Amino acid sequence: MQLAEEVIRLFPEYLRFKWKDVAGMGEALQEIRLRCERPVMIYARGEEWYLDRSGRLTREIERAQTLSRDELSQILKHICRYSLYAYEDEMSRGYMSADGGFRVGIAGEVILNPDGSVKNVRYISSLNIRIAHEARGAAAPVLPWLYDGGRLENVLILSPPGCGKTTLLRDIIRMVSDGNECAPGQTVGVVDERSEIAGCFQGIPRNDVGKRTDVLDGCPKGEGMMMLLRSMAPKVMAVDELGSREDVAALEQVLKCGCSVLATVHGSSWEELCRKRFLQPLLEGHVFGRFVVLGKRGDRFVVEQVRDPDGQILAEGL
Question: Which InterPro entries match (predicted)?
């Protein structure tokens, strides 16, 4: 199904006429932000647009449609297939997975469990529909630098927000799983905590992550890595957005089992990466054989550098 059709299907039938121009933005479309009694905002290639009541795109906020609570509620119910209860677990984590591989962030009134953890979110007042993009072949220029003698190195992708780290990770996973000019295909285990890598809907990946890939969707990284090791025996383990000592401890267990690791972390530079305290055990132990540093040129991400364990630059501007 084409992206435009998948975007249109996010909305109830009686509202779809309003969203044809937005869906027609295709691969340029990044986010649709819906807020109760606020203007509808569209983000495409880093630019902000608004939607007027007739469904036309405009740059003038004075002409923007204000979304009513009822309309927001109807969109939410449609995305949840008219069963909010079935999505309660996902909503407690602040997002939902929608058909087509889209992730829908939510905000509203939080309901807490007795222990202080989040039970659910009600009176939802904001939706952020993040449009899933695949960039098949994006990993091709960098892939030869990630292998040594036919063996995949442990790889850490470093990137500021919005520079394509998840997109690049997804394509590396696909090419490692399917096989490439550097090595035959390998079994890959993906712990997709936020449903952004594989874009699973009801457990089935909507994004192409390769034919030898097993995905554990919506599971915390540390626990998920251990589960995949026990159940699926992957040769390569992939996770997005390392951020805690618990993540690092789980990765260390994965490495003891002989798996290669593909991971990402937020950061704006090599120097910032070296200052991240929770990563120090991995950096000091030279665990990662390759570091891929991403940046942005205009509306597209680029591989600025590939570095070795000592921080030496192996390649630039890929």
Answer: AAA+_ATPase, P-loop_NTPase, Spore_III_AA, Spore_III_AA_AAA+_ATPase
pLDDT tens digits, 3-21: 888 899 999 999 999 999 9
**Tokens 């035959």, located at residue:** 184
Which residues, in sequence order, are CB contacts of 24 under 8 Å at separation 6+?
Answer: 4
Residues 6+ apart with CB under 8 A from 295: 159, 160, 163, 301, 302, 304
Query: If DSSP codes are grouped into helix, strand and coil, which group holds residue 284?
Result: helix
In contact, 60 and 149? CB cutoff 8 Å: no
Angle, helices 221-232/245-256, rounded to nearest 10 degrees? 20
Q: Which residue's structure tokens are 């899933």?
A: 132
Tokens 């969707």 sit at which residue?
Answer: 217
Query: Residues 6 or more apart from 177 whose CB is under 8 A from it?
Result: 185, 186, 187, 188, 209, 210, 211, 212, 213, 236
Is 108 in a helix, a strand, or coil?
strand
**Cα dist. 165→88, 89, 197, 221 in Å?**
29, 27, 10, 17
Separation between Cα atoms, residue 18 and residue 9, nearest integer Å: 12
Q: What is the largest CA-CA distance in the chain?
A: 60
pLDDT digits (tens, 9 = 90+) for 203-242: 888 889 999 999 999 888 989 999 999 999 999 999 999 9
